[in-house]
Amino acid sequence: MAIDGLLLHTLTNKLNQLTPCKIGKMQNVSDEEILFHIHPRKAKAQRLVINVHSNTSRVYISKSLRNTQPSPSNFVMVLRKQCSQAIITKIEQIGFDRIVRFDIEARNEFQDISHLKLYAELMGKYANLVLVDEKDIIIDALKRIPVFENSKRLVHPGAKYTLPPQPLKQDPRHIQSLDLDQSLVDQVYGFSPLLSKEFIYRLHKNEKFEDILEEIFQSNQLYVYDKDFHCIELKHLEKTPKVYDFMDGLDHLFIEKEQKQRIKEQCGDVFKTVDKELTKLKKKLPKLEESLHESQDYMKYKEYGDLLFAYQSQIKKEKIIRLESFETGKMIEIPLDMRFDIKDNANKFYQKYHKLKRGEIILQEQIVQCRKEIEYFEQLQQQLKFCSVEDALEIREELIKQRVLMPKKINQRQKKKKEPNILKLVLPNAEIYVGKNNIQNNYITHHLSRKQDMWFHVKDYHGSHVLIKTDELNEELIRMCANLAAYYSKGKESSSVPVDYCPISQIKKVPGSKIGFVTMKSYKTIYIDPDPRQIEEWIHTYEKKG
Q1: In the 8-state DSSP scheme, what is residue 543?
Q2: For 142-149, which contacts have Cβ atoms below 8 Å and span 24 or more sequence positions?
Q3: Which residues pair with 116 in a beta bridge?
Q4: Pseudo-torsion of CA 520, 523, 525, 531, nearest 10°?
Q5: Which of 76, 84, 208, 542 could form a disulfide with 72 if both were Cys (CB 3.0 to 4.6 A apart)?
Q6: pLDDT tens, 520-534?
Q7: Distance CA 271, CA 152 (A)
Q8: Is residue 315 predicted with pLDDT exceeding 90?
Q9: Residue 29 neighbours by CB under 8 Å, 6+ apart
Q10: 3-state DSSP assignment of residue 38
Q11: In this predicted model, what pLDDT tens digit does every residue of 195-254 receive, in sequence order?
């Protein structure tokens, strides 16, 4: 669900409380999302995010750290030129439409003050970000719309900026009359179909329109349901929502969806390569097994050769001849190649016998290797399901080292290599490390650990290596680590997931295996039901970045 006009009204009022504020850095989070570092006079620095993706368009304050693209887009370069160190004097919604205007006081190259406007149009597939000068002439837009795409509204540098056309509706603050048999979307500004259903439901329950509207305007919370959300409780859904602080809720709401989109943009080749390799290996395995089955009949070809040499002077060359077996006494049919004589046919059978005998050993080795490769790429496929951009980049690095992917040519100077992007939770009496890919798992198990540290891994599934450093290991900490290990694994959606744990001293690396594969000498097992909400709370409370 997209943000509707009434929710945006409440949101805009909260943002306007931060003005005046200075604009600092401006960065691309993705192709359709821009991060502004703003510095209000009476508050600490904030991260203002404007997203104009067709499905997730919104503007809000983000508290979470954002992964930005290394190179700015052309539009961000224009923003940096025009708005760097400028002051946002006012943030205002246009009527109750899904358009937010940022009034900006900037200085040009001659240090003269200029008044610019940045319009965030959050209207589904038409969502856009447009920078306009004092005379309402478009300086630039994130998505340029030429005249041949939209003859009614040109969005292009140098064109006159005009607001999108509005149908005639009632102002929600001054309602004359309502037809409760029809959707409020067509009658009142700012309504979405979801909010219309909620208002009609409450009005039938004898609640007043003005009271519901005031509840929206005064709300400081966000109510999140399976697929829907709003700043008031959606009673008509008759479900229990997750309740967040207003801005935190918006930050949390789309983070998973956006993360997948950013990963797709920056690391789509990793997903395609893993899927491609896994498909290729799964097609290869049955062919190898079929070849192995055929090769196991190699002894019959030796018998064919023996019989042909023994009776070569007594038999007449035919397409199929019948001879008595030396071992069983039964008659055996031997197909002959009519291009060759009896002796050459016998030699051909001996050649096939030796080839299949050698091939059986090679095929067995290939089958074992193919199964290991399938297990490895299935593990990567599972890790990609819950990885961040940094995690996906680490998986790409791993595939490059395996020579599965070719490295990308980078013109920029290589940055100093960082430690893997592991999840670190710092508790009062313990530190917990969680690996979400093979590079992180290997780093945790073989570089961060000490012999007395406790190590956790889900049993019989691909999953995370979890390490805890503490002098006071108790049942609560064991269950916490087991929960994390089960959550970051293929058993995430299961119940009573078995998790093995042991001291690091009991861990042994498998010689010749892929990175991250280990065995345990002795261990204990605990059964756990992964609790996503509990894990989310732990991460929010205890996570330490960097």
Answers
A1: B
A2: 142/32, 142/34, 142/52, 142/73, 142/75, 143/52
A3: 104
A4: -60
A5: 76
A6: 889 999 999 988 888
A7: 41
A8: no
A9: 35, 49, 51, 66, 67, 68, 69, 258, 262
A10: strand
A11: 999 999 999 999 999 999 999 999 999 999 888 899 999 999 999 998 989 988 888 877
Q: What is the pTM of this model?
A: 0.63
**Amino acid sitting at position 326:** F
CA distance 419 to 289: 42
If phi over 0 gives left and psi between -120 and 50 gives alpha, with beta otherwise, what is residue 32?
Answer: alpha
In 523-538, which positions are buried (b, 16+ CB within 10 angstroms) versus exposed (e)?
beebebebeeeebeeb
Q: Which of 413, 396, 417 is nearest to 405 (CA)?
A: 396
Residue 162 to residues 154, 165, 166, 278, Cα–Cα distance (Å): 9, 9, 12, 52
User: Is residue 208 exposed (0-12), middle (13-18) or buried (19+ Cβ within 10 Å)?
Assistant: exposed
What confidence tens digit (pLDDT) does each residue in 115-136 have? Answer: 999 999 998 888 999 999 999 9
Q: What percentage of the chain exceeds 70 in pLDDT?
A: 96
Bridge-partner residues for 99, per DSSP? 121
pLDDT digits (tens, 9 = 90+) for 393-405: 888 888 888 888 8
User: Phi-psi region for residue 437, left (φ > 0), alpha (ψ -120 to 50) or beta?
Assistant: beta
Three-state secondary structure call for residue 316: coil
Cα–Cα nearest to 308, from 331, 329, 334: 334
Residue located via tokens 């708005």: 83
Look at 102-106, 164-168, 184-188 and tell me which has the smallest mean pLDDT: 164-168
Only one residue has tokens 């961060």, namely 448
State the Cα–Cα distance between residues 297 and 42, nearest whole angstrom.
84
Please report, as a single letter, which amino acid is at residue 246.
F
If 0-12 CB within 10 Å is exposed, 13-18 middle and 19+ buried, where does residue 151 land?
A: exposed
Question: What single-letter amino acid sits at 537?
Answer: E
Tokens of 427: 């508790």
pLDDT in the model for residue 411: 47
